[in-house]
Design goal:
The chain has helices at about 5-35, 55-65, 85-90, 100-110, 155-165, 185-190, 200-210, 235-240, 240-260, 260-270, 280-295, 305-315; strands at about 40-45, 75-80, 95-100, 115-120, 125-130, 145-150, 175-180, 195-200, 215, 230. With about 350 residues, it is an alpha/beta fold. Helix 2 (about 55-65) packs across helix 10. The radius of gyration is 28 Å and the shape is globular. The protein starts with 6 loop residues before the first helix and ends in a 24-residue tail after the last helix.
């Protein structure tokens, strides 16, 4: 059989194939081994308005398990209590903060474009505790009593006013005493008849020390807007996916904490100083009580009626003095897909 190509041509063809084949293999090897560039996460400083505490377990879980990082965020918690976080978010100096609902309405009344985008707590965690022997079992029983509270400000004062309103008790028919954050000692010593407390904290401490108390929970008498995540209108307009990512990460932390409180407690020991040496039973009681107050099903949902109630209480207190479009203060539009 005759050759179809001259020998020199076959030699050239073979060399060409060898070169092309080597180039192709080299190109594949280069693509396979080229480093993948991972975008640098955006640093977020998140004020939470309180000291390191087991109640923030979902945030610790979300940080530890990389839920924020998977959303392109590097979150650090800010425990400074003196900072006006609503003003900082409203001015665009911070993109997010954890605050209570009344701060949002009061901020918007001052022209701050803050928006509440995720409810952490379903139930307002404030209440009034009193020794059982005093017979303070309804809001009406507060009439004429000495009531201790941190001061005439914040969620504690709002919660007390809501309870007094529910019991038909004018503020001038109770004796208010500023006791700072010494509710436990003030009750034990008899300095006051009752004290405004966080139901996840002081009642648990008192019972652990052998003191029986009655607790009037604000949430049993009125739905109010409690702690949640806020941002500002500019962030919603320009970076809506960042808002959704922040909510997704916190939600995953909440879900994991509810599903595995013991695991969340172990993670929190890395973030809360001396938690490992604290009374574990008491601190676990704080965590499980907190879980019972969180907004679930659907996650993060803001109740419109709670916002209306909050605005009414603030108006009765004289803190809201001009008309306010309440529906602009919150949004459920950035919650995980499939929710209201």
């Amino acid at each position: 059989m005759r050759e179809s190509h001259p020998r020199s041509f076959r030699w050239f063809l073979g060399l060409t194939i060898l070169i092309l084949g080597s180039s192709t293999l080299w190109g594949c090897r280069t693509a396979a081994t080229a480093p993948t560039l991972t975008p640098t996460p955006t640093a977020i400083r998140l004020p939470v308005g309180y000291i390191p505490n087991i109640q923030f377990a979902p945030l610790y879980v979300a940080i530890e398990k990389g839920y924020f990082r998977s959303e392109g965020l590097e979150v650090s918690l800010d425990y400074s209590m003196e900072t006006d976080n609503v003003a900082l978010v409203g001015a665009g100096n911070l993109p997010f903060a954890i605050v209570s609902g009344e701060q949002v309405l009061l901020g918007r009344a001052q022209g701050l474009p803050v928006v509440y985008v995720m409810a952490w707590y379903r139930d307002y965690p404030v209440g009034v505790a009193a020794p059982q022997g005093l017979g303070i079992r309804t809001p009406a029983d507060l009439r004429g009593r000495r009531i201790g509270l941190p001061g005439l400000y914040g969620a504690s004062y709002i919660g007390l006013r809501a309870l007094l309103s529910a019991g038909g008790v004018p503020e001038d028919q109770v004796r208010l005493e500023a006791i700072g954050y010494n509710q436990v000692e003030a009750l034990i010593s008899g300095q006051v008849d009752a004290a405004v407390v966080y139901v996840t904290n002081e009642p648990i401490q008192l019972r652990a020390r052998g003191y029986a108390v009655d607790v009037l929970r604000v949430a049993d008498y009125m739905a109010l807007v409690s702690n949640g995540l806020i941002t500002n209108e500019r962030t919603l307009r320009e970076q809506p996916e960042r808002v959704r990512g922040m909510i997704r990460a916190i939600t995953r932390g909440l879900q994991d904490t509810i599903n595995d409180p013991e695991g969340a407690y172990a993670i929190s020991e890395k973030y809360v100083e001396n938690l490992a040496q604290a009374d574990r039973a008491v601190q676990m009681d704080v965590l499980t009580t907190s879980i019972g107050l969180w907004q679930q099903a659907p996650w993060g949902y803001s109740d419109p009626q709670a916002w209306e109630n909050m605005a009414r209480v603030l108006r009765e207190m004289g803190l809201l003095t001009q008309p306010l479009e309440i529906t602009q203060a919150y949004s459920n539009a950035y919650l995980p897909q499939g929710q209201p």
